[in-house]
Amino acid sequence: MPNLRLVYFKMRALAEAPQLMLHYSGTPYSYEMGWDYFSRPWNEVKSSVLYRQLPLLVVNESTEIFQSGAITRYLAELTGLKPDDALLLAEVDALYEASQELFRPLNPTINFAVGEEFLSMRSKLIEQLAPRFEDFEQILESKPTTPFFFGDNPFYCDFGVFHHVNLALYLDENLLDPYPFLSEFLSNFERLDGVKEYLDSRPELIGVGSEPQLVIDGVAKSTGIVND
Ligand SMILES: N[C@@H](CCC(=O)N[C@@H](CS)C(=O)NCC(=O)O)C(=O)O
Fold first, then answer.
1. 172-213 pLDDT, tens per residue?
2. Which end of the chain offers a freer environment for a tag, N or C, measured as fewer CB atoms within 10 Å?
């Protein structure tokens, strides 16, 4: 297994599906903040970093893979979390991409918005999520006997969907009431070996809507891209 360093910030967002996959597959890696990896504040290095955004996966201290989709697909190959069949892979990838589209609306609202702004973003977001959740529900309902989207075991798309839907529950813990299949999928996913341990030990996200913080090594820190 190559040496893996996942570099990101203080937020529960694009590094989450990769981390879930790494834990599920028992693959060792280190998680590092951008300012630690680059040894400088992010705003000072951003313009010299390829594509100017994180996450970044550093492989064997030599290759830097940017873009969360590329990182996830690389890890899926490495850990066996993708199907061999090209046609099935295309379906898996379409679902993964559909889940990735939830990043833009969810991330600013849940990881950062506060007060009135949060409340107004929250109600719009709940409306916006409904059709996508209906899509997920429909796919799961079409295969009611399997615990995951494409069978008895999860592929990388399941990790993407789980992360975004799980994050959306911060908007309303009853959000999944109209979606019994999606709700069951989340329960099945949470029980997976490796996933369960990661969910129990990852930095807790607190203060959503008022003062969003991640509890890292027992210390509550503001979400963001600055080391404070
Ligand atoms: N398309 C990129 C988007 C990455 C992205 O939006 N990263 C944000 C954090 S979630 C970032 O680097 N923000 C800091 C900045 O833009 O300076 C991906 O999927 O990795």
1. 999 999 999 999 999 999 999 999 999 999 999 999 999 999
2. C
